[in-house]
Amino acid sequence: MIAEDQIARIDSETSFVLAAPMRFCLLKCLCSILLALIFLEAGGCSGKAVKKKGAPAGSGDGDTKETLPAIDLDTAIPVDDGKIRVASPIGWTRSSRSKDYLVRFLPGPKKSYPSISVTVADPPNGFDAITDQNQQQFVDGIAAGLEGDFSKNGKSSLLKKPVGMQLGPHLGAAWAAPGTAKVSGLNEPIERWVYAVVIGGRMYTVEARAPKGKVDAAAKMAAKAVAGGLAVPTAEPVEPLEPAERPAVEPAEPDAESAKPETPAESN
User: Fold this and answer.
1) What is the mean pLDDT of residues 66-94?
2) Which residues, 6 or more positions from 46, have their beta carbon under 8 angstroms from its beta carbon?
3) What CATH number has the domain bearing residue 146?
């Protein structure tokens, strides 16, 4: 009997020893799950969004909900023979006309940069409009056109390669390129941040430019706002013309001769 009790006690101790690693693994798993839940909750409370790679072509810098600054619709003018309407960003002024652009805006009457200019050209591949289906082809066409001017020995000098972007209601493309401009008679390096859309078979390019390193975020956002605000001018409703009232015709006055009273003829 004593031997049987000892055998049972040994079996019980052996089972406890063998089960200990299993209990340790289970406890470790529970702790890992608990820590993961704590980190997830902390990340959700922080309000920081996780940045996803490979944003769709029309997202524009990976953000489909980008809020653009307002434009002043009261300043809108038709350009390109009335094919398009352009409005100024609020706080910017429109400069004098030039053959080099359709319209140009400056941040103030006494400031020459950064400037925002709007130009027009034929779109690559003859696009009439940019849609979800052809936006990438439009971007590829832009890239092919830029390659000849900004590529040497297989190396691109572009500051930013063309990417698809949503600009207000329009799908388009955006890129950045270096350039030169005369400042006080000298050629100085500049930066050109460009946003292009196609409306009615015409490619309108909105460009923010300034000396190298001087195109700030506000200028880029203002240029995007101008591109997003491009629209076909709407015809003003014409009020129907009411038929003119005919003036009442007054009876003609008798002439002087007929107005004289008749005198009886004298009898001999």
Assistant:
1) 92
2) none
3) 3.40.1000.10
